[in-house]
Design goal:
UDP-galactose 4-epimerase, domain 1; seven-stranded parallel β-sheet; two-stranded parallel sheet; 2 domains; 11 strands
Amino acid sequence: MSGRKAPDDTGVDTVTGAFSYSGAAIARELLAAGRGVRTLTGHPGRAPAGSPVDARPLDFTDHDGLVEALTGTTTLYNTYWVRFAHGATDHATAVANSQRLFAAAADAKVRRVVHVSITHPSEDSPFPYFRGKAVVERELAATGIPHAVLRPAVLFGGDDVLVNNIAWLLRRLPLFAVGGRGDYRVRAIHVDDLARLCVARGRDTATTTEDAVGPERPTFTELVTSVRRAVGSRARIVRVPGPAVPAIAQLLGFVLRDVLLTADEYGAMASGLADSDGPATGSTRISEWLTEHGDTLGRTYANELRRHF
């Protein structure tokens, strides 16, 4: 652990993407705790009127601007990443941008970083998402800033994409395709549980790494079955060869003008990378949450491209 001072009880915390999904949950948790909150965002127009969050541009090409925006920050909560390559933005770009963000944090003398990563990051991974996340963790460690790395697999709750869109499809299609045997497990955490964990680790002083996962780990087939039951769908769940899933998702994505699921995302999930053997760090049981929210789940479609691009 470095010799930097531990976070104090005054000052401002900065969240990347406080008007997006997980960043918004972290910002709410910080505000509820009485913290001043600043955000670095690529979408300043999303700031609600009268928002207590101080919005600054997330411009990775402007080092001095990032340093100025981060100056006075006690803890930086970093949720920045890209889910898939689109246009000129890919995972290599996201790694380079993360390096710039951490360099600015070091120059701004940010006292602590809480970084949201992914389960099973590895620089040897066949999947660019997981390779990139591993490199970013290494680059964060190289700054010497005390930090906590939290590794969720899948998030649910609020305006999530995966579970909501499974429900949306189940409400509208007669069939739902599951790749292979569907026995690969999903260790999801509620976004508010992740936010509480982030804020708790922001108050710590030690440099730590842990999985951010809920108490249940259903198979993917079990998860889809639970969603179907919760929304009252009569869709039939059918097994298809694994390689057919990305092709089906691509066809649906063409119709919806979105990216539902990439081949890498399916491959990672089918390889067990959405699972974890670690202890539960979130308390919300996804089975109970689905039952409680079945009436509203999947009523509208969550379009990833519109949200981020």
